[in-house]
Amino acid sequence: MGKPEDVKADAGGSFEMIALPYAYNALEPHIDARTMEIHFSKHHLGYTNNLNKAIAGTDMANISIEDILKKVDAENKAVRNNAGGYYNHNFFWEIMGANKGGEPTGPVADAITKDFGSFADFKTQFTDAATKQFGSGWAWLVVGKDGKLSILATPNQDNPLMTKIGLSGTPILAVDVWEHAYYLNYQNKRKDYVEAFFNVINWEKVAEKYAATQTVPVQ
Ligand code: MN3
Question: What is the 88 CA–ligand 1 centroid distance (Å)?
Answer without folding.
Answer: 8
